[in-house]
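seq as requested:
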Amino acid sequence: MQPNPSLEFNDAGLTAFLANLVRAPSPNPPGNEGLVAELMVTRLAGLGFETITVEAAPGRPSVVARLVGTGGGATLLFNGHMDVQPPGRHWSRDPFGATIEGRRLYGQGAMDMKAGLAATVYAVDSLQQAGLRLAGDIVITAVADEVCGGHLGTGFLISEGLVQADMAVVCEPTGDTVRVAHRGALWLEIEVTGKSAHGGRPWLGVNAVSKAARIIAAIEDQLVPSLQDRVHPLLPAPTINIGAIRGGTKFNLVADHVVFQLDRRLVPGEDADTAEAEVSALCTEICAADDDEWSVDVKRAMHVSPGEVDPDERIVRACREAHRKVTGEDAAIGSTAGFEDAHFLLDAGIPTAMYGPYRRTASGEDPHYTISGMADEFVDLDDVARATRIYAQLMIDLLEKPL
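struct tokens:
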């Protein structure tokens, strides 16, 4: 089958809208997704969507927009996040300048995932321009907070009962793959308390930095290897990353306090309580075996569940079929080592696939290759246009007729 021949796509409008989204800075922390939300609401309202904007916390808006169909059809949800990772060092361009060079649009969050948001909007635009009215409803949620766990975004919308749908697509960058699984995350803060002393007489104190270093070494040398046999057919084994550490005062004082942050990734079948208990037990063991007097306390900062959907679910099969109709190629089944908002929707009983625009260039072929979160992040505008066409085809395939 071929894609619907009656559709025309406003690629120039798509590019301009994506550039405006990128130029509205929304790094998280702190988030401040308001400018992006305003752009989304204005454009969606112009397409006939009923929109509401809600805040889980001051300055942290999420948008829920619904385009009501003619009746009797399914409800299809497209979910995308407005927040982006903070720009790191080494950018050679303005990270919020939306610089276009050739067919590349550079900017923080251009690929992850403002491209996905823009593609959903202009997929609907193509249907409107063709005068197509579908039986089913289209819901678009533009959410806050995903890169820090999603609890102030998709999680809040679900908990407040503001999202209902028969099936959903999380518009993360996936390329030629439809993702059916993602890992979860457990963020822990580990606080080590020692005893201060002058650096000239360190034996009078207990150095919290040294004790924290022992714990970190044990985590990497003992706990990490023990996780490698927890296999999943699509996902990497659980991992641990020490993301940040702070403590001490100056050169010549024994540090009496250290806090370090730990990111523990979870595969489906693991639970956060067990993972936290494993870390806590190791910390307690190291402290108890030490003759010095010091303490360690493990606190949970954030938890995201792993997510997994059956590859035979209708939404997964429909994404693959729409991809094939538009590209003539098969989309593989895949997964992501990161976490996404899909688990909130899956836990609410909404079958959810993950699929969105992504630059398909292999790293070995492009010396300027970057992925989301790296300096000079960019998205290929041809890939965004292609995803827009696939989303439009997906809407037609699933919503054109009554159930």
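Residues 361-365 have pLDDT under 50 and may be disordered.
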